[in-house]
Amino acid sequence: MTRIKQIYRRLHWLVAAVSLALVCSPASSRAGDDPDKRRDLMARIDDKVDDLVDELERLPGDSSERPIDNAHALANEIKRLCDELEDVAGDDTDAKRIADQYPDDLDELFDVEDDLRALKRGQNHAQPEATQCQERERVLVRQAEEFEAKNDPDGLTELPKLAAQVQDETKRAIDEVHRDDDRLEDAKEEAEDYAADGGLREVDSAIGTAGRQMYAAGHKSEEAAEKACENLLKGVEHPEVKEALAKIGSSAGGRKAVMDQLRNDLRTLASTIASVSEDSGTGTLERAKSLVGELERGLDTLGRTATADRETKAMLEKWPEGVKQIKAALAALERLKVHQHELDALPDKCKQREQELDDAISKNGDDSDGIEEIPRLAEELAVPVRVGLDKARERLREEERDLAQARDVSVSEGPWSDVKTAQQRDAEETFRTFEDALKKTDSACEHVVKGKASPKAKNAEERLRQRAGSSGDQLDKDVLAWIDRARATYTLDCNGMKDMWQAYCREDWEPADDSPKDRAARTADGIKSRMRAAIDPVLADVEALEARVKTLADKRETKARGAELQKVLAKHKGRLTKLASNDVWRGNYDVVLQFSNTYGKQQHESLYGSKGCTVPTASTREAIFPSEGQAHFKPDCVNPNACQVWEFKPDSPTGHEDGIEQKDAYEYLVPLYYNKRRLANEPASDALGGSDIMTILKERCMSGGEIKLDVKVHEYSMCKSSYECVSGD
Amino acid sequence: MTEREALGVAFSVLGGARDCGAVADAIVGFCDASGLTFELLTMNTGGGVRQRKFLPKKLRGYVEDPKSWTLRLRSEARICSTLQAYLRDWKPLDDYETRFVSRWVCVGSDELPLAIEGPVLEFIEAMVRLYPVAHGAVGGYRALRYALHEFTNHANVMLTELDDETALRLSFDNRNHTEYREKLLRLYPVTIIGSAIWSKLPPLPPLEQPPIVSDLGDCKMLTCWPTLCEPRDPAFLRGTRALREWLWPYTIQNPADHVDNDPPAPP
To answer: Which residues of chain A does B46 touch, with a Cβ-Cβ cutoff of 8 Å?
Structure first.
């Protein structure tokens, strides 16, 4: 910092302090208002800030990071002085501002310390790469000169390899240098973003300047490295290499060596491709790709030789096309290879899931809860399998396309015939592995995928139903009847639904009444009280049942069955006891929630039927679109005939807000999904309408070259028509 | 309750705000200056609706939260003055994906005068500065629900509250939202045209009543009618027929807006 600035700043404080003394001297004895100490502290802070700026200014030219450490220590010292100043600031606005603002600004200085250190370390960051390039350059040129001096035909194959290898290494090194430069630029911008004003404005400016200077030095070292590596990045076009190759290649011996190597590489390529399918990894495929690279380089070398002999010309005429074809075919083979064993583990997974269902059925025994639990579990187990199988079938269609591309090699002259045969055979084998695995998966998952409709789940459910319904055992029947009564106590029946509906919707309430929400809450409380009152008599009856079950459990021959019944009774008794003693019924027991869930479900079913929906495929199913990062991806209805997407919502404030958010999401992801399918010329997944929906959408909803859909939210009234119960509800 | 005429201001924007914090400041400034009050702040976060009591001093914090995509300010009443602003994309989108996103910044209110002046003008200027605007519009509507439906995503949420003609017209708009980036919706009494669309327009034809074209940031503001009215107002349609014909190729070409569908002139 210049001396003039320091003097100016001190004068500024002096004037402020003298003015303050003149205006405020009578109050100077007030607590927290010590002008002498305040003046002293402010002057000391000012000095430290000057020192801090000095440290930052000398950072770019220093040989170490020590100025940053010094600046850190000074910043801490200033913060400590600010704490002291706060106690004696009194009404002095300058002192208060310093005490208040400086610590925050200095904390932010700590935040940019790492950036300053990175910039300091990066001032010569590309120097090692520049040195390495000089060394590589020396080695490569020496090699080129040696081959050229001996007119050694090996140079025609070895030099391009060496040049390519050096090119690759250099490219990686230079890429890393560029990444370092990007990181340093970010650090510079962070340093420039540091902002402070008032007395710390000089600090702000010094940080920015230091950051820019250090970055400029680093960037200069990057430019020097780029220059040193320039020729190496040209690979085989390196001037010295190119010249040596031209000289060696113009001799007959040189050409022969290159052509022999090319034939050799082609033979190796044929045998390598033949093993791709059986390789458990992708090593063989990589080797094949690398051989194709060798062939390309060899042909390039041969192409640079000045010759008119027939054999060379023939090779240069036909082989490049072969290389082009095999390159494209290998790319397709690689895609086949990537997915080749993808399904191998799935059959076992399906067996495991089937076993899981078996175990659950066996564990459930004769518990009537299984009537609900087993189908639910079967569905739960089926969902991922269905998704997986859908994806696998989708992949199979892609595999068929990839197979066609992988087989698409037509060049078959001479040694290319073996390559063509190997490529086509191996592509088929690789494809076949996937196809066979899909067949095995289909077979192994045959039952699991059916979910609750699988024979095992259905049989178990049927058996439990029969046992529950028509077993001759009176005790079983009595226990089941008791469980039904227990469930009825906490389940909102039709009359409860009606009461709740009336609470929300009746209009003949007195003017002094509160809102529908309050009325509903009060009605729900009333219903809950009725429900709770009904619990006690049900609980009272359980004791007699328990005694009868105990008798059963005490007998050796009926012990197992008795124990099961005891378990079932204990579970339901525990649930009832808890509900009887809890004032608040939460979750699925909450009466208001039961009402809105049941009402919503009924409305959804009714609207699904009236809106011409084809997706989801049934009102009880869900249409799950790829989420594309959105939280909502399950619209209630897609009607392709009307180019319409629907979301059904209750006409409540939360329903309204949710509806708007869902509309936003579906507007984005539903047309996007069908348009992506259209562009890929693929059907939608079965759950989202399959090929049928695509046909209708393309026929009816295309406009301006894309499928367009209108997304609407249907807000169903909670009070549209009166809620009536009929006998049997 | 008697319905009052309402002002509708809207922008279709090409992306998120350039500075979300400044958007918050502009909204708070607009509320202060216009006297418009909101009770509820609703943020769409993708993970659900996050609703808070609207406290102006906290708006900046919510808006700067990278999880917030859209904000909506309203009150408890079902139909009430509403301000909605798209803030940012929820993930990086490629060119194709971005077509499917509707991005709006809009205000509908029956508590503001039907004029572009004072706080309303300042708000419009701020939004043009803070967003990459594709196009925008200002109109006056017979009732607040019409102003809200014209642009905001309330559209089609409560379609039964509109007459059939408007509902049908807005349905078409909605279905063609993938074209909002490149095309205007239609001519409004005041139509704001972003630089990309403006650069494609041919010169204005000679007109009996040419619009007033003024610069608004890097957009152009076409004042086409002396009063703020609805875009299907019969007098407005009669007075702007040639202008609408000129603009037609650069709109989403909603059949309802075609000059052949203009209402018959009064006898």
So the answer is: 629-631, 665
Task: Give A603→chain B minimum CA distance, Å.
Answer: 17
Q: Dmax of chain B from CA atoms? A: 58
User: Tens digit of pLDDT for each residue in B38-48?
Assistant: 988 888 876 66
State the residue range of the domain holding A418. 250-343+382-445
Burial A680-697 (b: 16+ CB within 10 A, else e): eeebbbebbbeeebbebb
In a domain, residue A44? The reply is: yes
pLDDT tens-digit series, residues A540-563? 888 888 888 888 788 766 778 888
d(Cα B22, Cα B34) in Å, to the nearest integer? 18
CB B153 within 8 A of CB B68: no
Give how far the C-alpha of residue A340 lies from the chain's centroid of Cα atoms, to the nearest Å.
25
Considering the domain boundaries, does residue A214 fall inside one?
A: yes
Residues A583 and A619 in one domain: no
| Closest Cβ–Cβ partner in B42, B72, B157 for A713 | B157
Provide the pLDDT for residue A182: 86
Q: Which residue of chain B comes nearest to A650, CA vs CA? A: B157
- For chain B, the average pLDDT equals 90
| Rounded average pLDDT over B86-110 | 91
Which pLDDT score, from 0 to 100, does residue A561 have? 80
CA A113 to chain centre: 32
Asked if residue A547 and residue A570 are part of one domain, the reply reads yes
List, for residues A13-70, the tens digit of each pLDDT value.
Answer: 333 333 333 333 333 344 456 788 999 999 999 999 999 999 999 999 998 999 999 9
Q: How many domains does chain A have?
A: 4
Contacts A–B by Cβ distance under 8 A: 80
Report the pLDDT averaged over residues A287-292: 92
The domain limits of chain B are: 6-261
Give A654 to chain B, closest Cα distance, Å: 9
**A449: DSSP letter:** G
CA-CA distance, A174 to B263, in Å (whole number)? 69
Predicted local confidence at residue B162, as pLDDT: 83
So what's the ipTM on this one?
0.87
**A657: nearest CB among B46, B51, B159:** B51
Contacts of A269 (CB under 8 A, 6+ apart): A288, A291, A292, A295, A326, A419
Give the A window 608-647 contacts with B, CB below 8 Å.
Answer: 628-631, 643
